[in-house]
Design goal:
rod-shaped, mainly alpha, about 0% strand, 1 helix
């Protein structure tokens, strides 16, 4: 039972990472695009 709890907790962390990583990627890509546009317009 303890092993299952540890697996379940790890799976929860993995799911959170799978949710957070694309959000971070989208945020950084938007920031990069905005920065690039600002450089082009400057």
């Amino acid at each position: 039972m303890k092993l299952w709890k540890s697996i379940e907790a790890h799976h929860g962390d993995f799911g959170a990472a799978l949710f957070i990583l694309p959000c971070l990627l989208a945020t950084f890509s938007m920031a990069g695009i905005a920065f690039g546009v600002a450089l082009l317009l400057a």
